[in-house]
Amino acid sequence: MAKQRTRHYGCHSWDHVKRVHDLCVFIGKKEKGDLEILKISSLLHDIARNGGRGNHAVKGAREAERVLLRLGLQRAKVSEIVNVIKTHRFKTREKPMSLEAKVLSDADKLDAMGAIGVYRASAFGGETSRSFQGTIGHFDEKLLKLKDRMYTATAKKLAKKRHKFMLVYLKQIEKEIGLKS
Questions:
Q1: In whole angstroms, what separates CA 86 from the centre of its chain?
Q2: Structural domain of 14
Q3: What's the CATH code of the domain at 167?
Q4: Within the chain, how many helices (H) and strands (E) appear?
């Protein structure tokens, strides 16, 4: 179901969901998180992302709750998953509190960094008809801030490497378009 719901959303497609899932499992093992909650949450974290307005994390949490209860998952487990999904978004006011919520938030941000982040920023620029300068500006507006917004030690290490790659990329862009020597 999650695959079906996310396959057409470009930068937030099933490929993104799979990468976030894999990062959640990797970070979750290192940080000793609840892997069942992380696996389910990561697969459903963008279920309500459809290009529309509003907070997809809150909408997705509600939708995940309905689906998981219908499937017979224990209410306590569903409540944990709902909280993890609800607080994963970069722009959310409600900060992740549980380890699992922090792991999903970190994994989602990590997928916006490094080589994949460069690709996704460029693809999103194309999807939304954002100008070249607008896409490059997105790095300063958001992507270069992600490194300092990680919660877990494991994600902080991964973020450093991805952040460095983005800086190298931007320096090369500047050279190629003659903004700096």
A1: 12
A2: 2-177
A3: 1.10.3210.10
A4: 9, 0
Asked if 17 contacts 41 with a C-beta cutoff of 8 angstroms, the reply is no
Average pLDDT score over residue span 140-147: 95
113-116: list long-range contacts, CB under 8 Å, 24+ apart. Answer: 113/143, 113/146, 113/147, 113/159, 113/162, 113/163, 113/165, 113/166, 114/161, 114/162, 114/163, 114/165, 114/166, 115/162, 115/165, 116/19
Does an H or E element contain 120, and which?
A: helix 114-127
How confident is the model at residue 7, as a pLDDT? 47
**Amino acid at the residue 29:** K
Rounded-to-integer distance, Cα 49 and Cα 14, Å: 11
Tracing tokens 């983005």 back to the chain, one arrives at 166
